[in-house]
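Two proteins, back to back. First:
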Amino acid sequence: MLVNQKVLEKLIKLLPFFILLFCCEESNKEQKQQLNTKTKVINYSELNLESVYKIKNYNQIDNWINYIELSEFIEQLNLNDFSSVTDNKKYLIRFFNVIKNSIPSEINKPEIKSRLTVIETDFLRFESMISNYEINDKMKVKMVKKINNSFSNLNFQIDKLTEKQEITPQ
């Protein structure tokens, strides 16, 4: 009985230590959870947004200044910078009118104009969502991916059109 009493006394002496340890650990878990929810930042570079199809066949793309500007807009979105889109509807409409009217003659075809219209629609939709609503990060990612996909389709179409013209010159 004496041995049990000694063990019990030691346990009673250690009890405050265990209670303190348990409470501190719970507090740390809560703090980490609060930190994670407060600082939930999307790292867009980890979302495979860099997988945008790049033009391979059309060498004159560097001369199309508006295309370069569009590419820079999309790059900004991929870097989580929405300043070029937020509350900028008039500018976006004007920009897409200019880009559609500045398509180089070799690729000025309905296929290219339609792809640009799709990109314009995606941008305007995203602008409306960002400017008028509090959208969650999941929706932002979805829209940025959609814009990247549309841009990839434009680039792919430019390559296909260039290939076709090389095969059957006009």
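And the second protein:
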Amino acid sequence: MTETYLVEAKSSVFNDTPLTEADFDTNCQREFPSEAAAEDWVTDQMNPHTNPGTLSLHTAHPNDTSDVDAYLVFRPSQGVWVADS
């Protein structure tokens, strides 16, 4: 049996990023072959020119009873982005 790394997207991910629920299965989850592959995918999804914040993986708590290995969350940048005049 092959080990995989299961990531669940939190609702914050869909607010100010190009990601949509279509990028995940019906439970807002996505399976990766490894933790490193998940981290690489998250890095590829970030675009500092269009995303006013940071996507990051948060390892599930040891007492978390789900099958999820990590949660994908979006943290808006501190302050307000202002376009150059």
